[in-house]
Amino acid sequence: MTGIKAKKLSLNLSKDEFIKKMIFHTDDEIERCKKYLDLKGVEYHIVLANFIGLNNHGKVEYKKVSCLYQYDKRIRNILYKYISAFEESIRAFICNKYSQTIDSFKKISESICERISRGGSLSRELEDLDLGKLLNLAKKLSAEEKSRLFGKTEKLSENLNAVRELRNAVSHHRLLFIYEDFETCFIDGKELDSLQANILNLYKLINPYYQEFFKIAINDAIKADDDREFTNAIPKTAIIRI
Asked: Which residues contact 239 (CB under 8 A, 6 or more apart)?
């Protein structure tokens, strides 16, 4: 059809070429676009534009690209906070359970017990573990302990692996809405690997004390009191709700 361009922008566009593909409504938007292309990179903006989708003339409103980037960052910041809380709760559970009976911890990790015997402490040893190693310890807990710590334990190993990969994506500042390497998790018996599913998986695993705070933070991320157009600029397919 005449006038219709490619459905996706090439990842090799230059800064000036990308700007020509944007629809701007104010001069301020143009200046903001130029600044953030320098600060965040052209390719990051291109993949977001492609996620949103182009119009029949191969263009997209810059406002939508900018708002989706902001929304992605909000979700990342929230996840960072609550994944950290998730880690802390695992360390606290293990430390509270075994710090006074360290010999019984040998069934979980003989190497950690050996280091403790040379003058270390369980809390310090646990702090030195990255999330992947900490989750591997948690998988060695008894069925009763895992139930107390995580609630439902069906497909627990897979769901913990999914949290680990979610944390990797967040920690490396990946754009979550276009990230393709989330691990599979199981939600109500369904095998899923979407961002939405991975966030819900974390919500179900996290300590009940944090769940309502986490839910409110995620659901409120789409709101912006200082920008009434923010919510409407986000594609409905990108909106995350718990």
From this structure: 222
Q: What distance in Å separates the CA atoms of residue 197 and residue 185, rounded to the nearest whole number?
A: 7
* 59-87: b (≥16 Cβ within 10 Å) or e: ebbbbbbbbbbbbbebbbebbeebbeebb
Enumerate the β-bridge partners of residue 190: 187
Region 1-27: what's the mean pLDDT? 84
* Strand 22-23 versus strand 60-61 pairing type: parallel
- Counting every residue written for the chain, the total comes to 242
Handedness of CA 10, 16, 22, 28 (dihedral sign): positive
Q: How far apart are CA 155 and CA 181, in angstroms?
A: 19
Closest CA to 218 of 68, 48, 71, 52: 71
The enclosing H or E element of 67 equals helix 62-98
Distance CA 132, CA 59 (A): 42
Integer-rounded Cα radius of gyration of the chain: 22
pLDDT value of residue 5: 47
In the block, tokens 């600044």 appear at: 35
- C-alpha distance across the termini of the chain, in Å: 41
pLDDT digits (tens, 9 = 90+) for 16-68: 999 999 999 999 999 999 999 999 999 999 999 999 999 999 999 999 999 99
- Going by C-alpha positions, the residue among 183, 177, 213, 221 that lies closest to residue 201 is 183
102-148: pLDDT as tens digits: 888 888 999 998 888 888 899 999 999 999 999 999 999 999 999 99
Q: Span 191-218, mean pLDDT?
A: 97
